[in-house]
Structures are given as structure tokens and as C-alpha cells.
Amino acid sequence: MANYRIFKTNEFDSDFQKLEKPEKERVLKFLAQLSEKGGSVGKPLSGLPFFREKKFEGNRLYYLVYENFCVVLAVAISDKKAQQATINAILAKLAHYQLFVMEALKEKGVI
After folding, report:
1. pLDDT of residue 30
2. 101-111: buried (b, 16+ CB within 10 Å) or exposed (e) per residue?
3. Quick one: pLDDT at residue 57?
4. C-alpha pair distances (Å), 47 with each of 8, 22, 83
5. In sequence order, what are the residues at sequence separation of 6 or more whose Cβ sits closer than 8 angstroms to the Cβ of residue 103?
6. Angle formed by the axes of helices 83-92 and 94-107, to 10°?
7. Beta strand 59-66 with 71-79: parallel, antiparallel or unpaired?
8. Fewer Cβ in 10 A, N or C end of the chain?
9. Number of domains in the chain
10. In this structure, how many other beta carbons lie within 10 angstroms of the beta carbon of residue 64?
11. Of the candidates 85, 95, 25, the residue with the CA atom closest to the CA atom of residue 64
12. Contacts 24+ apart (CB under 8 A), 89-93
């Protein structure tokens, strides 16, 4: 199985910076796990197998898996209170995220 490339949105980076050190370490371990296993990790959301979440310490990490490119896009982190609003915002921007991944792959010379 090929390793997955991990890309992160600016929103994810901003959310990540707000976390405490132990939570940041947990997220980094989880991103390493995603790099190895891709879409076989976490829980699918909204009936979309490529849109997934992983719970940790009261928070949720949201990510999109692009199997055809072996890419995982870390999109956002939220708490339970903001869960539905975060999911809705991600669903509204799926096309934007796909373009983001395509541009990142072009920059790296992959496609």
C-alpha cells in the first residue's frame, strides 16, 4: 500500500495552533497514521466515504481522502458544539478543496 500525502488547509493550521500541546501531539500521531492507512481510519460522514472524522479528547479532526491520488486533506478541527456547523461548511466547499488538492499536486509535479 502506498503512503498517502498529507495536505492541510489554512483553517486546519489555525485550528491546530489553538490546541494544547498534548492534543497537538495526538493530532500529529493521527496524521502519521493517516499517511500510512488513508481512508481506512476514522468514521465516514454525511454518507460520503471520502469525508471522515476522527475523535480525540473532545474534539474532532475532519479530513477528505482522495484515494485516486493517495492524498489526505486535513480540513478542520472542532469541538462537539461546532460539529454540525463545521461539517456543513466543509460540505459547501468540497469543490474548493478538490481544486486545492489538484493545485498542490501540480506544484509538487505529481500531476
Report:
1. 96
2. beebbeeeeee
3. 87
4. 23, 31, 16
5. none
6. 60
7. antiparallel
8. N
9. 1
10. 22
11. 95
12. 90/51, 90/62, 90/64, 91/46, 91/51
Residue 69 identity: F
CATH of the domain at 22: 3.30.2310.20
What is the Cα–Cα distance from 52 to 62, expressed in whole angstroms? Answer: 6
Max intra-chain CA distance, the chain:
40
Give me the domain span that covers residue 32.
5-107
pTM: 0.95
- pLDDT means over runs of 10, the chain (111 residues): 90 97 96 94 95 95 96 97 97 98 95 87
**Lookup result for grid cell 479528547:** 57
* Grid coordinates belonging to 56: 480525540
Cα–Cα distance for residue pair 84/15, rounded to 1 Å: 16
pLDDT of residue 23: 96
User: Would you say 76 and 86 are in contact if contact means Cβ atoms under 8 Å apart?
Assistant: yes
Q: CA-CA distance, 52 to 72, in Å (whole number)?
A: 10
